[in-house]
Amino acid sequence: MQKNKVRKAVIPVAGFGTRLFPATKVVKKELFPIIDRDGRAKPVIIAIIEEAISAGITEVGIVVQPDDKEVFVDLFKNPPKKELFDKLSLENKEYSRYLEDLGSKVTILLQEEQLGYGHAVFCAKDWVQDEPFLLMLGDHVYASDIEKSCASQILDVYEQVNRSVVSLTTTPAENLHTSGCVTGVWQELNSILEVTQLYEKPTIEYAKQHLRVEGMAENEFLCIFGLYLLSPKIFDFLAEHINQNLRRTRRISINIFS
User: Tens place of pLDDT for every residue, the chain, 258 residues?
Assistant: First the structure.
């Protein structure tokens, strides 16, 4: 596979947010306010886009429900009305102009029917075209404890291995029921793992028998962190699953995406 520069990020935000009901009856979870490290209140989606931009991404596609399109267009494409803008502090007026610049990098994509996460990603196929892309989750806040951002780190690994990459995090056994768990072989100890199996929400018993990773504590496992660098080959597999109406495959090899 020829290595191409990663220019695009895809962020699916078309879910219903059922786990955060009733808050999501009023505000989509991707628009929940958070306080960033500079003390500024902002919707989660802005922090996610800024994470992508920090890694050198130049175009961001946000996959939304048709009913939510207007909300995201207003956030990223429309400046505040004059009566609001005039009331902003000088700092916030500057930030408003920054948002317009950020919005120029954003494309709104539609998922006409809510048919699951994989289908939402597939809705970005024509926009991504034949390029590797960064896939980010619309309900995650990515925060690195080192100088380099999380997105920058996964792009660095892609530069090294020239194949699809998934970020991992250490997870205690009692939380495996919420995560996709992996096993594999270390290429660089505690840094790069060649994944040989992924299992969605395994039981602790299954994980202890089949998903152990060398060097991990007895009750700790490696699980998906929610940040992916994928080759466009992923769309072929998604198309196959959509055509066959397969909503979940519990055990897969990540190597098929190389």
Answer: 456 789 999 999 988 778 878 888 888 889 999 998 888 999 999 999 999 999 999 999 999 999 999 999 999 999 999 999 999 999 999 999 999 999 999 999 999 988 888 999 999 999 999 999 999 998 888 888 888 999 999 999 999 988 899 999 999 999 999 889 999 999 888 889 999 999 999 999 999 999 999 999 999 999 998 899 999 999 999 998 888 877 654 443 333 333
Closest CA to 15 of 76, 64, 67: 64
Rounded to two decimals, what is the model's pTM?
A: 0.88
Domain limit, last residue, from 114, 144, 174: 144
The H or E element spanning position 64 is: strand 59-64
Helix (H, G, I), strand (E, B) or coil at 27: coil
Alpha-carbon torsion angle 101, 12, 123, 62, nearest 10: -10
Number of domains in the chain: 2
Select from 144, 176, 208 the last residue of a domain.
Answer: 144
